[in-house]
Model the fold of this input.
Amino acid sequence: MTSSTTSPAPAAPHPRAGRRCHNVLNALHSSHYFSPDVTRELAGLGITHPSAVNFAVRAAALGAVGPGVVTAAFYNYKHELVAAHVPHIWRIASPEDVLAARLRGVDATLRRLLGDDAVASPEMAEAAGLALHAAEACTRTARPLYSAHADLPVPQEPHLAYWHAATLLREHRGDGHVSVLLGAGLDGLEALVTHTATGKGTRPKWVFSTRGWDKDEWRAAEERLRTRGVLDAEGELTEAGVALRKEIEAETDRLDRAPYEHLGTAGVERLTELGTVFTGAALQAGAFPADLIGKR
Done:
């Protein structure tokens, strides 16, 4: 009779470690929203308006859904902007064609930003394996964007598998984050205003051009937040506002802990290390507009 042993579970990482890992993975994932390569691929399908491109590439995994579903899942876009493009985009190109075009655009984007050597490197394959392993512990319940992307096949090439896994982890956290924002009593625009007030969110000019809100609506949201004691007269977060944003991120961490606990402390540290290198290279290559982030 032989005795059997089981391997000990990997040590659980600090809650903030998962957030740091997510941040570097999400940055590389998000580069495709600003990519001329993706824009060119969608234009080849006949989808050319910047907002239409954005809605198509992110919502295609959901299928040919209507504007209500997209507004609900995306949370911080003005419904009228969504309805101006959805479901019209699905009459131009099918979700399946959009997904294929998106993957071609992502392939070109990662090769342009990182270089062919990085794309083909052992480190990229290692990062893909770690990220996919973390994503094994993601859960579908109440997470529509994650669940839709989890139904898609994993690309064979390591750099695309890494991007796919980063997408799964981003949408898993994002779906949970939306639940937390709803529980905190912040509507989509108020969530944007408070995030921008932290100095880590999108500048108002980009909110106006990409989310469909205007300056008057932004000011009205600020006034609502002042009434709640979240913002001061200058539009800065009050002490209560800072506490609220910290609570939101901490609760989002709690809802998103499973993938990183599954990966373990050493795995999270290594994935963060590898992701930081890839994201750093993408940032140096100009993956994002220089004035995207800031308070004003």
Notes: The mean pLDDT is 96. DSSP finds 16 helices and no strands in the chain.
